[in-house]
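User: Just a sanity check before I run the rest of the batch. Below are the structure tokens for the first item. I only need the designed sequence back.
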């Protein structure tokens, strides 16, 4: 086969291979659409009720959200609705009664069962909001079937959905609610309790209206039921801060069995290390002497070794140095004239001054002491 024929054959073979690959690609692959949830950003990262707020605003309703209730800063209207993620245990006694007074005037409140221990946030033994309404949480047992999920089927849903999974149930001591959802195994998961002109919806959990489940048909139906009483009349206030008791409050009230013994041990250690108050004890022997003791000891040593002249010369040099500062002219004169000039200044006879300026005889302790003392006195008078 010629070179031209081989080239044509290779081109045809290559075209057939490409055509086979293209046919295989279109036969085995097909275009699909896939939805990928993007990470939550902005306000939705900290506001769990943000999707509910946007849904209400999109439907033309007035809705606003904030961290805490703070009725003194944002007064509530007569026909407003409050949805609280804030745990009712975080409310002070006066806030609880103010909120119930507002509900009695026509407001609608949506809350969940307290998530913590009610004893942690009692103000002087005051009952919690749910206790005032007669809500009594049920104790869950290991074999209690109510610890499971409730299955709901609503119009528009393709299948039953599980809700309130492993959430506590509760009983009501003030009769049947206006509207509610009851667990066949016992206890309520949602109950609307009338209070004056208004009402309070108590749920076993706020999970159905949270950020991650609001799009389900069952959650949409449940939210519509919860917001129905005052829908179209007032503003929806969405409180998204959980507001549980602080860590220090929990430690102070529930952790005393740990910190009380530790505090007592610390006090005992400090008492053991603290200096006692009692009779004076003899002080420790000092390892050094005072300056005057050193000078005295040095003088006695020099005198013992017959070097008293060094003591005299030191005192005389100090006197001459001071005389040079006070009267430079007298310091440069001969001994006789110098003694007369010093006598005129101090009033001491010149003969005594001249004798003091002369070294004492060796071994004469009396003359040494006398002349050293006289030089010191003369120095003070300059």
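Assistant: Here's the designed sequence for the first item:
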């Amino acid at each position: 086969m010629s070179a031209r024929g081989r080239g044509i054959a290779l081109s045809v073979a290559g075209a057939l291979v490409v055509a086979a690959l293209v046919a295989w690609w279109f036969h085995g692959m097909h275009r699909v659409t896939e939805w990928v949830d993007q990470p939550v950003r902005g306000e939705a990262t900290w506001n769990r009720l943000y999707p509910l707020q946007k849904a209400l605003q999109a439907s033309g309703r007035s809705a606003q959200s904030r961290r805490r209730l703070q009725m003194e800063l944002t007064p509530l209207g007569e026909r407003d609705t409050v949805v609280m993620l804030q745990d009712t245990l975080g409310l002070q006694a006066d806030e609880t009664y103010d909120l119930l007074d507002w509900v009695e005037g026509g407001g609608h409140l949506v809350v969940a069962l307290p998530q913590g221990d009610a004893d942690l946030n009692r103000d002087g033994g005051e009952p919690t909001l749910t206790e005032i309404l007669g809500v009594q949480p049920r104790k869950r047992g290991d074999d209690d079937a109510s610890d499971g999920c409730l299955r709901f089927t609503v119009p528009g849903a393709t299948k039953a959905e599980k809700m309130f999974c492993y959430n506590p149930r509760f009983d009501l001591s003030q009769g049947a609610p206006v509207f509610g959802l009851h667990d066949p195994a016992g206890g309520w998961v949602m109950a609307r309790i009338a209070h004056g002109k208004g009402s309070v919806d108590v749920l076993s959990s706020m999970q159905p209206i949270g950020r991650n489940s609001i799009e389900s048909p069952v959650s949409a139906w449940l939210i519509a039921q919860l917001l129905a009483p005052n829908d179209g009349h007032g503003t929806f206030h969405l409180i998204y801060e959980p507001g549980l008791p602080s860590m220090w409050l929990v430690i102070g009230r529930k952790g005393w069995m740990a910190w009380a013994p530790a505090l007592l041990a610390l006090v005992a250690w400090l008492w053991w290390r603290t200096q006692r108050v009692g009779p004076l004890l003899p002080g420790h022997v000092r390892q050094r002497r005072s300056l005057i003791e050193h000078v005295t000891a040095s003088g006695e040593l020099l005198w013992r070794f017959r070097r008293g002249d060094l003591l005299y010369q030191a005192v005389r040099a100090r006197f001459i140095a001071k005389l040079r500062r006070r009267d430079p002219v007298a310091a440069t004169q001969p001994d006789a004239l110098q003694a007369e000039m010093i006598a005129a200044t101090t009033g001491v006879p010149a003969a005594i001054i001249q004798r003091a300026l002369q070294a004492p005889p060796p071994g004469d302790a009396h003359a040494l002491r006398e002349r050293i003392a006289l030089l010191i006195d003369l120095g003070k008078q300059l």
